[in-house]
Specification:
5 helices; elongated; about 20% strand; two-stranded antiparallel ribbon; alpha+beta; Glucose Permease (Domain IIA)
């Protein structure tokens, strides 16, 4: 009897062991395969070459002249007219020197020549036809402008010493003085339609409303040093490349792009704004 009990216990133990082994075999240990635990190196990326075929980055026009004296790198918000004013040049001259087909299209990062080239071949190149056709807002000029403006070659402009013989462009009082940062000229009072006069002999290098904050604008070049600018006009009475005389009526006062009727008048010496009052006779 005792031997039978022992045999029964042995069979019971064997059955329990078999069950335990079967249960362990059905439980996943959730161990990742060895190969999945290895870190794989990323595939090498081929280098991108500037200007290469297949989507390479193309350098900006004139990039080889960046940082060179006499050249300017275009920044966000720039226009050719503003660049020309800041460097004491005509925007048409800049378009010609840089062979720009469309003066309204310049790229950020583009490097532009802003002084006259020395090469006779470059100077002799004609302004692209598109520049003449696409003169920024040239249609703003009044219908009363002379039909046949008289061109004045840059070589015939007077010397800078004539600046001490200028006259006031309007008779109104100064309502805002010169501040190189906040106000790059002076603001002069007046009534709508009052005459605006050229302060000295010169040549018209810009007529239009393409410069933000200036409204209907006229820029005169008096020599190789000085420009004068006349802003916020109601009516423009001259055309680009026209020769004007000291005291000639070139516009009528207004409030274009301004909160009141006024003339904003600037003097630029080699592109840098200077206090106009220092160049005008005392009142």
């Amino acid at each position: 009897m005792k031997h039978g009990v022992s045999r029964g216990v042995s069979w019971a133990l064997l059955a329990v062991a078999a069950w335990w082994l079967t249960a362990c075999g059905s439980v996943s240990l959730n161990r990742a395969p060895v190969e999945d635990r290895m870190v794989k190196s990323p595939a090498p990326v081929p280098p991108v070459t500037a200007g290469a075929e297949g989507g390479g980055v193309k350098p900006s026009p004139g990039f080889e002249n960046a940082g060179t004296a006499g050249y300017y790198t275009v920044k966000p918000g720039d226009t050719l007219i503003r660049i020309a004013l800041e460097h004491g040049q005509s925007f048409r001259d800049l378009a010609s020197w840089n062979q720009l087909d469309n003066p309204n299209r310049i790229e950020v990062g583009q490097v532009l020549r802003v002084i006259a080239p020395l090469s006779a071949e470059v100077i002799g190149k004609p302004i692209p036809k598109a520049v003449v056709a696409a003169s920024p807002v040239s249609a703003v000029a009044s219908a009363n402008a002379p039909a046949a403006p008289v061109p004045l070659a840059p070589a015939t402009l007077p010397e800078a010493s004539s600046a001490n013989q200028w006259i006031w462009p309007v008779s109104g009082a100064v309502v805002a003085g010169f501040d190189e940062i906040k106000n790059k000229g002076v603001d002069l009072a007046g009534k709508d339609g009052d005459p605006v006069l050229a302060v000295a002999d010169g040549r018209v290098v810009y007529v239009g409303a393409g410069l933000r904050g200036y409204g209907n604008l006229i820029i005169l070049k008096h020599d190789n040093v000085y420009l004068t600018a006349y802003a916020h006009n109601r009516t423009l009475l001259v055309k680009e490349d026209q020769a004007v005389l000291k005291g000639q009526k070139i516009a009528e006062m207004g409030n274009s792009d301004a909160e009141r009727v006024k003339l904003h008048f600037e003097v630029r010496r080699q592109g840098k704004p200077v206090d106009p009052v220092k160049y005008l006779p005392p009142r």
